[in-house]
Amino acid sequence: MKKKQSLLCCAVIAAAVLAAAPVRAQFAKAEDAVKYRQAVYTVMANHMGRLAAMAKGERPFDAAAAQASARVIETMSHLPWEAFPAGSTSKGLKAEPWADAADYKARADRLQGETAKLPAAAASLETLRPQLGATGAACKNCHDKYRNI
Ligand code: ASC
Known about the structure:
Layout: H1 3-20, H2 30-55, H3 63-76, H4 101-115, H5 118-121, H6 125-146
Helix pairs in contact: 2-3, 2-6, 4-6
Residues 45, 48-49, 52, 136, 139-140 line the site of ascorbic acid (ASC).
């Protein structure tokens, strides 16, 4: 086969393999996974902001609202991890979570451990403050390695 033809052939095969590679059953395209995880983080950050406003006294403390936000954060903390299929790069990433699955899972587990305590802690301002701090530290633990900001 001539050089030009064989190059073309390689390119066609590579494109076919890439197109067929399952990003993950849940996401048809890498871009769908990126959108999904960013949506989860947007909701989580919004509710972290509501709790932070109460913790700082910028908004009156309301136990029912705080606990509702805490439950949203806990639920959200379980969702993004399946949405980092290999190759789903985005501007927001400074390292690839799929390159070290154990490290990435350890950081996700730490966050889930802290968010699990948040709904009960949100019953009073005195208990909310330290647990919100621990939760924010678990967010940051992952951001330090993976988030490009
Ligand atoms: C938040 C929020 C984050 C984390 C992070 C903690 O409230 O929006 O991304 O906490 O700032 O370090």
